[in-house]
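A quick aside before the break. I want you to see a complete sequence-to-structure record at least once, exactly as it would be stored in a machine-readable document. Don't worry about memorizing anything.
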Amino acid sequence: MSCNNNKKTNAEPAADSTVYYPINNYIRQQIKQVDTTPYYVYRVLVMDGKKDSTTISRPVFDSLTKQFLLPELEEDALKKNFTESVYGDQSTNSITLTYTPKDSNTTVQNAMVLLDPNSQDIKWIFINTLQNKGDSTVIQKIGWKGGTSCYLNRSASYADGKKNEMQLNIVWNEK
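That is the input. The structure line, written in C-alpha cells, reads:
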C-alpha cells in the first residue's frame, strides 16, 4: 500500500467574513417604512437665518432622503474602502461601529452607527462628508435617528470668504 500524497489543497484565500453594517440598506428600509405608514411627515429648513416648517408629501420625503444614500456607503464599497472599529460606549449606552476611510481623500470622512446594546436596533447613524468643488468646500453632517427623524447640516465655504449654511430636519415619528 502506498500513502496518498495526492490530497488537494485549497489554493484560494479564505473569504473575508467581516460583516459591515449595511448603512444604505437600513436607510432604504426606513424610507420604505415611512412611505407605507401613515405618519405625519414634516421638514424644518433653516437657510440664511430663516426658518421654514412645512408638511411634506411622500414623493418630497423620498426626494429629500435620497441625498442620505451615499455611494461610498453601499455594502461592497464600505467593506472595500473603510476600516471598521467596534466598541461599547457607556456614555451613550450604545454599541458603536465606526467606519474610517482607508483613503482620506474620499468624500465620506467617517460614519458611525450606534446600536442599542440589548435589541441591536439603530439608535443613530452619523455621517460626515467633505467635498472640494472648484472654489468651494462643502461639509455635510448627516444624522439618522432610527424610526423617527433625520437631519442634514450643510456648510459651503467659498474662496472669496462667503459662506452658506443650511439645516434640514425631517421628522416622521417623533414621540
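Two observations worth writing down. The CA atoms of residues 99 and 160 lie 33 Å apart. Helices lie at 23-36, 58-65, 75-81. We'll return to this after the break.
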